[in-house]
Amino acid sequence: MHPAHNSADGPDIALAVESRCTPTHGPNAPPAEQKFKWTLKLAVLSVCLFILAGIAEIGGGWLIFQTIRVQKPFWWAILGGVILIIYGFIPTFQPISNFGRVFAVYGGFFIVLSYAWGWLLNGERPDKGDYIGAGIALGGVLIAWFWPFRHRTVHS
């Protein structure tokens, strides 16, 4: 925190504006000052956001797929497109601002949720290889996501 921005009551408005306008990565990013630590609340929130994003992406894509492949009404595709737009915003609520990490980890959730969606809505039961592959994918991304780390940008 810049000392010029402190007052007796705490940081002033200029600091709040400055922190919102400061890049979180790249050559102009400040050095990481916040030490990020997972809490149970953040972990549950993060997993719920991955699941919500998966439901939105798979659901929106499924509605469009049904319109084209199964000749469902065109409004299904429009609704699917709206849901996909909403999906695009969900990962921005993750507690970590590393785009690549957020989307890489989301990929493991996407795999598991895609199989679940296909099974529940289309009756496409996964086989042993699907279960093993999905388990490895999800396990791998959970290790990557929750592994202790240094220098990750925290979403504020």
UniProtKB/TrEMBL annotation:
Domain of life of the organism encoding this protein: Eukaryota
Keyword match Membrane: yes
Database matches in InterPro entries: EmrE-like (IPR037185), UPF0060 (IPR003844)
This protein's GO CC annotations: plasma membrane
Transmembrane segments: 42-68, 74-90, 102-119, 131-149
The entry's keywords: Cell membrane, Membrane, Transmembrane, Transmembrane helix
Protein's name according to its UniProt entry: Uncharacterized protein
Biological classification of the source: Eukaryota, Viridiplantae, Chlorophyta, core chlorophytes, Trebouxiophyceae
